[in-house]
Design brief:
Pfam family, one: EAL
Helix content: 40-55%
Oligomer: single chain
Shape: globular
Number of strands: 21
Largest sheet: 8 strands, mixed, barrel
Radius of gyration: 29 Å
EC number: 3.1.4.52
Catalytic activity: 3',3'-c-di-GMP + H2O = 5'-phosphoguanylyl(3'->5')guanosine + H(+)
Distance between the termini: 106 Å
Enzyme class: hydrolase
GO cellular component, one term: plasma membrane
Length: 540
């Protein structure tokens, strides 16, 4: 009896010793996960409200600028001014002038039919009328967002108000205080959004199964929501690991699993681990001399290859890498990858060059130049065979950028400005910095051969590059008519799917060898002599 009693008491104490810590861990993990999820949703909502305010601010500025026009209504000067306003304002797709609530003209010209002005759903505190659901002819049935001020209305893609990267199980909405849904991401429930507007800033929906967070501005309310059920599913695996363990082991495992999962499941944590494991590889986008078809080089494009073989899109992890400072370690891995992948090919053909993209911090600090020199030292690859590319954001600190570029060119690198025309003060950078090449962004190449508000920009960019004796590279060429157009206007080099997609190293080497067999190799490493203009092409 005593033995049985001791066994029973021991069993009960053992069960309590296992159950109580695990129960406490269950409650703690749920509370922490909920708080973390609410913090994440709060961050999303706050960021979304900034994006919405920025887009609305640009649209408001455009409306008030148009309202101040002194041109005769719908004259050629008036239409041209509206078109220029659309081209230079990122957040609007079109602008129209109305008289007596009838559309008289837009940035496209005068309408062929009578079009009545749509009534607004509400008016913001700043006096701008908002029509949440507009179906203009030019959008091919896509719902647009309309902003109205006096005689003018602008159309905006609702997606610009929620231009935020989120997971599929998270929903984001931009609404007003009355509950009118203006824009959304991942199909938010309008009824839920209207109900949550009256709730506190963060918490759980009492009538449903959602966690939510809100952020307010003078005009909008941003609401981010996610399902509590998905949160439970995420916790299930960790909880199962804790079940068979004893009291002390259970308590230790709660802390360990929570710490590891917190690091492993966050985007920054995953990226940090990927850098440590050197999970980044390089694909190569061939660069073609448009006059001859010769493959003269390639742009090195980083890819994140997970252990399961899947690839993560660069636009998903590059912004986080730049924000966290991990981009420098990733750039170093790209440099190593280029030398490892293509060192023998670059040694065999000195006319071949590879372009490496640099971050804004690398341009500012110049720390990447010694890294490249160290990588090249034992490879035999010439400095002249490595181009450096940076977007306009990397040149915002002009003084530091100039010092880095001058040192890079002294060492033998050529330097190109990438995605030209998508940033700010582009002409200033071209005039103030000793650049070698200008790369026209794909968004401008896409408009070649199309009737578009931005189609007239491409020839202007080409003319600017010619006036400064820069090599011209066109990105994203996909159609032969684009290539013909660019060649005729003197563009030197092109890249895009018309020639090839970005290729793994061995596939690029095969592509290059075939191009060399058909067209031959380039005559020399492409390098700009500041005393001479780049070679004329096509119509030049």
């Amino acid at each position: 009896m005593e033995r049985s009693y001791i066994v029973a008491v021991t069993s009960v104490l053992a069960a309590l010793g296992a159950i109580l810590p695990i129960a406490a861990a269950f409650y703690l993990s749920w509370s922490v996960a909920t708080s973390r999820e609410e913090a994440r949703l709060t961050g999303l909502a706050e960021y979304a409200i900034k994006r919405a305010d920025a887009a609305f601010g640009e649209a408001t500025t455009a409306l008030k600028t148009a309202d101040g026009f002194a041109f005769a209504p719908c004259s050629q000067e008036h239409i041209s001014a509206m078109r220029t306003l659309v081209v230079t304002t990122r957040s609007i797709e079109d602008i129209g002038y109305f008289e007596n609530d009838q559309l008289k003209c837009t940035s496209w010209g005068k309408p062929e039919t009578t079009i009545a002005r749509q009534q607004v759903d509400f008016t913001t505190a700043s006096g701008i009328g908002v029509a949440a659901r507009v179906h203009p002819t030019i959008s091919n049935g896509q719902t647009m967002l309309g902003f109205r001020y006096r005689s003018y209305s602008v159309l905006t893609d609702p997606a610009r108000l929620v231009d935020v990267l989120i997971s599929p199980d998270t929903r984001l909405a931009i609404a007003n205080e009355a509950g009118i849904l203006v824009s959304g991401l991942n199909n938010p429930d309008p009824a839920l959004i209207k109900r949550l507007i009256a709730h506190p800033q963060t918490g759980a929906d009492a009538d449903g199964d959602d966690l939510f967070a809100k952020s307010n501005s003078s005009n909008w309310i941003a609401i981010a929501t996610s399902s509590r059920a998905s949160l439970l599913n995420d916790l299930g695996r960790e909880r199962l690991l804790l079940l068979p363990l004893g009291a002390i082991v259970a308590a230790l495992m709660v802390g360990l699993v929570f710490w590891l999962s917190r690091r492993r499941l966050s985007p920054l944590g995953e990226l940090s681990i990927a850098v440590q494991r050197r999970e980044f590889i390089v694909h190569y986008q061939p660069l073609i001399e448009m006059k001859t078809g010769i493959c003269v080089g390639a742009e090195a494009l980083v890819r994140w290859r997970r252990p399961d073989g899947s690839l993560v899109r660069p636009d998903t992890f590059i912004p986080l890498a730049e924000e966290s400072g991990l981009i420098q370690a990733i750039t170093d891995q790209v440099i190593d990858g280029v030398i490892r992948d293509l060192g023998p090919v670059l040694l065999a053909d000195r006319s071949l060059h590879i372009a490496i993209n640099l971050s804004a911090e690398d341009i500012k600090s110049g720390r990447v130049l010694p890294v490249i020199q160290d990588a090249l030292a034992s490879s035999g690859v010439l400095t002249e065979q490595i181009w450096l590319e940076a977007t306009e954001r990397g040149f915002m600190d002009v003084k530091s950028a100039r010092a880095t570029i001058e040192e890079a060119r002294r060492l033998g690198h050529s330097v190109a400005i990438d995605d030209f025309g998508t940033g700010y003060s582009s002409l200033q950078y071209l005039q103030d910095l000793p650049l070698d090449a200008l790369k026209i962004d794909k968004s401008f190449i896409d408009t070649v051969g199309l009737v578009s508000a931005t189609s007239a920009v491409t020839p202007h960019i080409i003319d600017i590059a010619k006036s400064l004796n820069l090599y011209i590279v066109a990105e994203g060429i996909e159609r032969q008519e684009q290539a013909d157009y660019l060649l005729e206007r003197g563009v030197h080099y092109g890249q895009g799917w018309l020639y090839s997609k970005a290729l793994p190293a061995q596939e690029f080497i095969a592509f290059y060898n075939e191009s060399k067999r058909v067209h031959g190799a380039g005559p020399a490493v492409i390098r700009r002599d500041f005393s001479m203009a780049p070679p004329a092409v096509g119509g030049d």
